[in-house]
Amino acid sequence: MRNPPTVALVGGGASGTLSAVHLLSYAHARGVPLSVTMIDRYGRHGMGQAYSTTDPHHLLNACAEKMSAIDGDPGHLLRWAAGQGLGADGSAFLPRAAYGRYLCHVLAEAERRAAPGGRVARMTGTVRALARAPGGGWRVRLAGGGGFDADAVVLATGNPAPAARPELAGAAGYRYVPAPWEPGALIGIDDGSPVLVIGTGLTMVDVAISVTRAHPGTVVYAVSRHGLLPRPHPCDAPPPVAVPLPEGPLRLAGLLRAVRAAVVHNGGDWHGVVDGLRPRVPELWARLSGEDRRRFLALVARYWEVHRHRLPPATAARLDDLLAQGRLRLLRGRVTGADASPAGLTVRVAAGDGPRELDVGWVVNGTGPGSPADRDPLLAGLIAAGEARPDPLGLGLATAASGALLDAAGRPHDRLFTLGPTLRGTLYETTAIPEIRAQAARLARRLVDSVAAAGRADTVFGCRRVPSASVTTTES
User: CA-CA-CA-CA torsion for 272, 276, 281, 284, nearest 10 degrees?
Assistant: First the structure.
């Protein structure tokens, strides 16, 4: 008997988990045996970096009714939460650790219900390279040696680490945390000494919540260009508001005028306007010119992000308390350098009111995701070999509408896909569970239908035959 076709998922976080769940579920519905191999660098299958936190005060930034893992079943998370005794209603903001347990449960259930021959193999390791395999699949090569062949590969790598900060070279290796969500990266920073976070977004919020609860005297400095905090969710969310827009090509200036007019027409309340725009963002992004996209990133993106990615009311209230107590201090400016000092680090900041120096115990890079190609040796290797290319803005990878990677010549792969944050350049709005869930469902249907149509012939996944070529990368 032939082995079932194999899909390799590079990444075991939310993107990889939702892909595995929908692959197995749709394969079960079609009666197709399918083997899924999930490779996670740290063995956090199901949770990834976002949901492996152990701090119960780190809450989801969306209410429970929007966070179902199952496409087409919006009440799935709420039923699970009720079964766990969490007592959550649709407007509740669950702890992220609970949501990590939920994703693990959903994955286990999908495996239990898989079609005969279907299974999930959980592998702990780092994929360092992909090489073309005979017949059109991929050979997955692991760091330290070894690997396996897969009929198709899905890059579910999630958010990359923050971009490197050359100005902090003097602090490298000494009380500087360059990637705060690496396992163990934040151990020790709750020692009571002041903490400076570069960035004022959601990562800063998590760090501030944790270190100020751990030690009553801790002060957190947060520095960013705009000095803007994420806005809070309203306790009673208004309904989404439609924003009238012209058809055809769209200019950024016209889009902004339409949004402002919609807010005015909505009595000055922006919440419903932003929520009405959210599902249209990929379409609107596609209609903007490349120059307008760059202008958006330079001038508008931060304002969109703080209104779009909001805080749970309880978290917002905690930040308000910290600001009132002087334990969270916002600075509008940029960090220009840092050096070791007897107390920890002396950080130089070019602030709006002039240069200043801050003596802190720790510095955390909370600037958000960097470029995937810069931070991931696997993706850099694929680009160097011509098997992939970055999108024009450097936000992620260039892809077709299906999520198929484009090679250096712009041709879509038939067996190499991606979803989630790596699609930012193509879709912009692609980092939240609702978007990733829908992408995973569409991709599952594409792959499983191809398996069902082609069986185990050479054309499994409907692929073109290609000559074998290897992809190599170097250790980071």
Answer: -110
